[in-house]
Amino acid sequence: MPIWNPWHGCHKKSAGCLNCYMFRRDSEFDKDSNTVSKTNSFDMILKKKKDGTYKIQNEKDYIYTCMTSDFFIEEADEWRKEIWQMIKQRKDLKFFIITKRIERFYVSLPEDWKDGYENVTICSTCENQKTANERLPILLELPIKHREIIHEPMLEKINIEKYLQSNKIENVTCGGESGPNARICNYEWILDIRNQCLKYNVPFYFKQTGANFIRENKLYKIPRKEQMRQAQKANINIK
Length: 239
Hints:
Helix content is 26%, strand content 20%. By secondary structure, the chain is an alpha/beta fold.
């Protein structure tokens, strides 16, 4: 899973959208997540070897973009224009963009975007029903080739059937929250989303349990290193 962070810093903490991960990762490197700035890897995907070939070659997996920030954050509007040009140039790579700011999609969008770049997948986060109802209608209306949904951290039972029946969603991911102050994730919520995906033939991925996981009315305290493994052991993914 190659990660490309052209800028870091989340600027605003909120109830969901991987923010705990972003702030935790920045703190590990003694960075202030309230300040948005370019990273040394800003033009990483264009770097070449002495023989003229790209250092990052065509990957089977996606290039995960801005995993310690948000691709559509306001402070990066000018930089984003350059990033879109790099993504356009590297048509041989597939880019995966997760955002809680889907409403800012058009800001700094390239003129030749049209109905979307084939090598770009946009994934909207929604941690509860409120954010699902706010963000997913926007996601469906936008000119995007590939769309996904991620409920992480998943904080309550969420109904997304009316969005899945559009046939525009290519995958749904669910996961609990990590960290010392993690909120509870209930396995019943995960299974409910899985059933919705089954109904509309949409691939589903259970990413991680989170630190505080309820299953059959019992609370499990799960160490971070075990959270993804325990999710895989559930064997409920749909391809």
